[in-house]
Amino acid sequence: MTGNTEDVRPATAVTAAAGATLLVTSVSTLVVNANTSAVSILLPAISEDTGMPIDTLQWAVTGYSLVGAATIVTSGALADVFGRRRIFLYGLVLFVLSCVMIALAPDGAFVIAGRCIQGAAGAAILASGMSLIAAANTGKAQLRAVTLWGAASAIGAAAGPLVGGVLASTTGWQGLFWIDAVIAAICIPIALRSVAESRDPKRSRSIDLGGTVLIAAILAPLIFGLTNGSAWGWASLQTIGCFAVSIAAIFAFVAVERRVKAPLLDLALLRNKILVGSTLAILLGSGTINGIMFVVSLYFQDPSTLALSPMQTGLATLPVAGAAIVLAPVIAPVVSRIGARTTIALGFVIMTASFAALAFVDASWVYALFVLPLIGVAAGMSLQNGPASSISTACVEPNQVGSASGISNMARYVGAAVMTAIVASVYSSVSTNQAADGAAAGDAVASALAWSSIAMGIWCALGIALALLVGRFRIAKPTATDFAAAAANTAQAVTAPPPRR
Fold first, then answer.
1. 261-to-77, 82, 201, 313, 404 alpha-carbon distances in Å
2. CA–CA separation, 288 vs 418, rounded Å?
3. pLDDT tens digits, residue range 35-55?
4. Cα–Cα distance between 336 and 62 in angstroms, integer?
5. Is the pTM higher than 0.90?
6. Are 60 and 115 in contact (CB under 8 A)?
7. For the packed helices 139-170 and 318-327, what is the interaxial angle rounded to 10 degrees?
8. Please, what is the end-to-end C-alpha distance for the chain in angstroms?
9. Model confidence over 273-315: pLDDT tens digits?
10. Cβ atoms of residues 52 and 63 within 8 Å
11. Which residues does 290 contact at the CB level (< 8 Å), separation at least 6?
């Protein structure tokens, strides 16, 4: 983490400023995560109100992650160069505007557009938030502040579905965005008055905007192809064309990153097998849990299955976030006892087994049958995501920590976007095909959830092999700060990725 420049203010003023910084960054992060985790719960209500099909509205989820993936590292770079408080404030303003845009949206297209804007706003808030905390604190105070910031993030992630469900059932789905806009707006004058500006004077002032655009150019057609491939045909010209554009954008991205002064992605880091392995583990873990929670939220509210209200669905998903929060503090002791390699592999084993259990779902299942498998998914994600997060920064040189953290944090957004697109495609195509073959509505939707779970289970099974491969390499022991940040990251992985360090 990069610190602030030397501070000559009185100790009491510094302490007050640090407290204000922690308060405003924690509240804003809580709001961002609550907003993000609530959206899947709101999709059926938004669909009913706007008339847009849910398989199109899923871009409100994937679009957010796509834009976040493209801008998270750039937001951190902009914060280091032009001022962390400044970018934080820009993020808050953009977040308020996007909330208002979504709340006033006349149709689903405006909701999707607003969510894409919100992806950039959330990335700016998260990317600069932890940097502001790191700059305002040192030593044990920094560790304590990071831990509290992580707790606020986790509370937001856990409370989002419930708050969103309650508001959707009472004030309408727009209520969430109005309340979030008000809270974020209140944070702006507090940050202006009390949060000190900080920069990284050693960082190059060059910003890799080309890399940012190309990340979006890689992900957008990929997700578009995954979402529509079953309808178009996987061998159709449209589907192949989308994937071809993504591949071409990858080559262009590599070419750009080799030439720019301050690349978005330091390609030399890709030779670090431990970093690559831990990053892929993060992508798979956070991606699969985001993907399954997307379809579970739809399944719970489907009239042909559980027919839960938005508020009931919010309550029903609490065990998932709750399990991640409860397990976050015990990650470090578990790793210390059995090792990172075994912990990551165990996490993926538990996730694979939990997805396998969900593969047996049928229309007769009551809610109680979902609880243990969903808790298992959350528990497994916690076990693999925490160590992978700490390893990703512990396996590089101190001057590469920011870049390595940026890579792993981008992976969270990419995982959420790609895996949600995959399960949305599977869920939609299977339910449509089953209904066309004469299956009852409940059986069609249950089959769709089962195949979605199988798809996610296959990815987690690959994660087991990945963990065993990564474990062959020796790494430096993560520090206390690494574990604190990893715990915060784990709690957020259900909904939103954490900031760069």
1. 13, 17, 16, 48, 17
2. 9
3. 888 898 999 999 999 999 988
4. 36
5. no
6. yes
7. 170
8. 5
9. 888 888 898 899 889 988 998 999 999 999 999 999 999 998 8
10. no
11. 65, 415, 416, 419, 420, 493, 494, 495
